[in-house]
Amino acid sequence: MSRPDPVAWPGGSVDASRRYRLPVRVYYQDTDAGGVVFHAAYLAFLERARTEFLRSIGFDIGRLAAEGVLFALHRLEMEFLRPARLDDALEVTAGIGNLGRTSARFVQTVEWADGSVATRASLSLVCVSATRFRPMGIPEPLRAALESWTLAADAEAGPGGTPGARTDNGVESTG
Amino acid sequence: MSRPDPVAWPGGSVDASRRYRLPVRVYYQDTDAGGVVFHAAYLAFLERARTEFLRSIGFDIGRLAAEGVLFALHRLEMEFLRPARLDDALEVTAGIGNLGRTSARFVQTVEWADGSVATRASLSLVCVSATRFRPMGIPEPLRAALESWTLAADAEAGPGGTPGARTDNGVESTG
Amino acid sequence: MSRPDPVAWPGGSVDASRRYRLPVRVYYQDTDAGGVVFHAAYLAFLERARTEFLRSIGFDIGRLAAEGVLFALHRLEMEFLRPARLDDALEVTAGIGNLGRTSARFVQTVEWADGSVATRASLSLVCVSATRFRPMGIPEPLRAALESWTLAADAEAGPGGTPGARTDNGVESTG
Amino acid sequence: MSRPDPVAWPGGSVDASRRYRLPVRVYYQDTDAGGVVFHAAYLAFLERARTEFLRSIGFDIGRLAAEGVLFALHRLEMEFLRPARLDDALEVTAGIGNLGRTSARFVQTVEWADGSVATRASLSLVCVSATRFRPMGIPEPLRAALESWTLAADAEAGPGGTPGARTDNGVESTG
Questions:
Q1: How far apart are CA C120 and CA C107, in angstroms?
Q2: Residue B48: closest CA among B26, B17, B75
Q3: For residue C4, what pLDDT band results from cuts at 50, 70 and 90?
Q4: What is the share, in percent, of chain A residues with pLDDT greater than 90?
Q5: Which residues of chain A neighbour C85 with C-beta distances below 8 Å?
C-alpha cells in the first residue's frame, strides 16, 4: 500500500550543545491517579525524541525497519527528579553519549522550558536485525551521522545540570 | 509548586470547515505486533487533539481540573477504516458535533495528509465535578466558546467523507 | 527461538450465560489524574478477556498470528457507566454476539463482583491476513468453536442490564 | 462511593528465595511493530507485581493512597536480555533489595517459566505524601513488613543469574 507524503513535522530544534529538543505536552493519557506523569510515560516521551532526532539527521525508523534494521533497548538508567503534571509543556532532549560498532548510548532529559529537569536518562540501544533480533553493525551512513552528533564529554549533563558535579548526583554516578 | 510558563505549542491549525487539526507521528509505542497502530492508541491521539482544540479556544484542561471540572467520556463510537503504520505522519481532527447543557459530542478523525481516513469517531463527553464525578453544567464561558465552534451539520463527515452519503457508511449511520 | 511451555493461566472462568470472565486489577498504570481508570485502559482490559476467551476454547492468538491470521478491530461502541478506581478488583467479560463469515461481534463488559457495570462494549472484529490486512474467512475450526459460543439474544445485556430495556439505554441502542 | 468487596486475586505465589511471583501474559497491547514486547510495557508488568506483592503482605495501594501515602519511583536501572513476544506466559518477580527510612529498593525480573530472564530491574521508590510529593517515613507497620521480606544478599540475582558473577554482568554492576 503506497503512503502519502509525510507532512512537515513541527516543533523540533537543536540547542547550542547539539542536543535535539522536542516539545511534548502532558495529557490525561500520560498521568496516573497520583496526579503526576506515570513513570513509564516518560519512556514514551524519550522514544519520540530519539525518533525525531534520527529523522532530523536524515534517518526514518520506518525506512530502517523496512530495511530490516531495528534498535532494541539493552540498558536503561533513569532518575526521576521532579514530577511533571497534567498540561505541563515539556521539552524532551536527545543526544548521543557514546557510539560503538553495534550500539549507541543516548543521553536524554525531560525538562521544563526554564531548564529544570523532570527526569534524566541514559539508554543503550543495540542495532539488531528485524528478523532474528541479532546484533549487527550500525549501517555506515547512520553510524557516521551519529558520530558527528556525539556530545562533548562536558556537555552531557544538560542545561539543568552542572557538568563538573555530574558524578555526584547525575544518572552516570549510580551503581 | 509554581510552574514555569508554557512553551508555545507547535503544529495545530484550524481548517476551512472549522475543525482543529493536530499533527501526530506514529512511533513504536503506538504500534503492536500486527505491524499497525494498536487500536487503543487512536484514543490517545484523539484525546491530544481535543485537548489542543480546547486550548486553542482559550481553555486549558489543567486549569479546568484545578477548578474542579473534568470531562468524562460517556459514549464512544469508532470506525477503523485503514490501518496506520510505524512512522506515518497523521493529522487528528476535532470538531463539536452537538452541545448540551452538561455534555458535548466531539466528532473526530485520524487522517493522512491526503485526506484518507484511518479512523472516524464520535465521543460524548460529560462535564463532571472532579471530586464526585457528578454531571454539572458546562461552565458558561466554555459553553459559549464551544457553541461558536459547533460544526455545520453538513460539515461533520470531514474532508475524507462525502457528507451526503454519510448515513450510508459513516460512524453516524451505525446501530 | 524455541519457547518454554506456558505456565497455566489463572483466574478465568465461564459464567452461567456462557460469557468468559477474566479478573483484572486496577493499577496506577491504568488510571489518570482524574483519579479514575483512563478510558483507553478499558480497551486494554477488553483485549485481555477476548484473548483468554479464545485460548479457553482452544485458540491462541500467538499461534494464529504465526499462521498469518489476525483479528482487526473494525467497529467499536462503548458506554462508560461508572468509573473504576485504583486497586478495584474487576471482572472483564467476553461473549460472542454475532458471527459472520469474516467477522465476529464481541459483547463485553467490565464489572465489579456485585454485577455493577463500569463499561459495556460491542466490538466488531474482522479476520484479516497478517501480511496484507485483507479480510479473509475465519478459519473453519475457529469459526465452528465461536458459533457454539454465540450468546442467546436475551443473554446479551449482561448481568448488570435488563435485556428488555436494552434498546433504550444500552450500547446496542445507539446510532 | 462504597466499593463492593474485591474478588480473590488469582495466580500470585512466593518462591523459595522469598520473591513474589506474578504470572503475566503478553497481549497485542504489550507489543510493538518490532514483533516483541515494547520496552515500557515491562515497567507496567513490574508495577503489577510490586502492587500484588504489597497486597500479599497485607498492604493495598488503594488504602495507602486514601491515607495520603504514595510510592514514587526515584531511580530505575533495567537490563533487557531477551525479547518476550506475543502470547508468551511470563512471571514477574518482586523482592526487597534494600530498605531505608523513606525508601525501598525493589529487585525485579520478568522471566519465563524455565527461569530464563527477559529483563532484570532495580527500582528505588520513595515514600511521599500524596498532597505535596514530599518524602516521608514509610509508615511503621509497612516498614516492618518490608524488612521481614528483605532478600538475603546472595539471593538477589534471581533464579536465572549466578549471584557470584553478578557484578560482572548484572543490573547491579552498572554505573
A1: 8
A2: B26
A3: very low
A4: 73
A5: 33
Q: Are A11 and A23 in contact (CB under 8 A)?
A: yes
How far C175 CA sits from the closest chain A CA (Å)?
27
B86-114, pLDDT tens digit by residue?
Answer: 999 999 999 999 999 999 999 999 999 99
pLDDT digit string, tens, across residues A112-162: 999 999 999 999 999 999 989 999 999 999 999 999 989 876 555 543 333
Work out the number of other CB atoms within 10 angstroms of the CB of residue B76: 25
How many structural domains is chain B composed of?
1
Asked if A47's CB is within 8 angstroms of B27's CB, the reply is: yes
Residue B39 in domain? yes
| pLDDT value of residue D3 | 37
Interface pTM (ipTM) of the complex? 0.85
D3 within some domain = no
Report the C-alpha gap between D53 and D11 in whole angstroms.
12
CA B115/CA C66 separation, integer angstroms:
34
Name the percent of chain C lying above pLDDT 90: 73
Report chain C's mean pLDDT, rounded to a whole number: 85
* Domain that includes residue C72, residue range: 13-154
C-alpha D65, offset from chain centre: 18
D28 vs C47, C60, C112: nearest CB: C47
D88 to C5: CB separation less than 8 angstroms, yes or no: no
Residue of D47, D65, D76 lying closest to A33 (CB–CB): D65
Q: What is the pLDDT of residues C94-144, one digit of tens each?
A: 999 999 999 999 999 999 999 999 999 999 999 999 989 999 999 999 999
Reported as a single tens digit per residue, the pLDDT across A86-111 is: 999 999 999 999 999 999 999 999 99
For residue B45, the SS3 value is helix
Instruction: Work out the minimum CA distance from D144 to partner chain C, whole angstroms.
Output: 23
Say if the Cβ atoms of D29 and C23 lie within 8 Å. Answer: no
Interface-testing mutation among D26, D27, D81, with chain C (most C C-beta atoms within 10 A) = D27
Q: Is residue A7 part of a domain?
A: no
* pLDDT value at B36 more than 60: yes
C62 within 8 A of D85, measured Cβ to Cβ? yes
- In chain B, which residue's Cα lies nearest the Cα of D36? B33
Q: How far apart are CA D11 and CA D22, in angstroms?
A: 6
Chains sharing 3 or more CB pairs under 8 A with chain D:
A, B, C
Residue A172 counted as domain residue:
no
All three cell numbers of C77? 461502541
- The reply to whether D5 belongs to the active site is no
Q: How many residues does chain B have?
A: 175
Name the H helices within chain B.
39-56, 61-66, 140-148, 166-169
B135: CATH: 3.10.129.10
d(CA A37, nearest CA chain B) in Å: 13
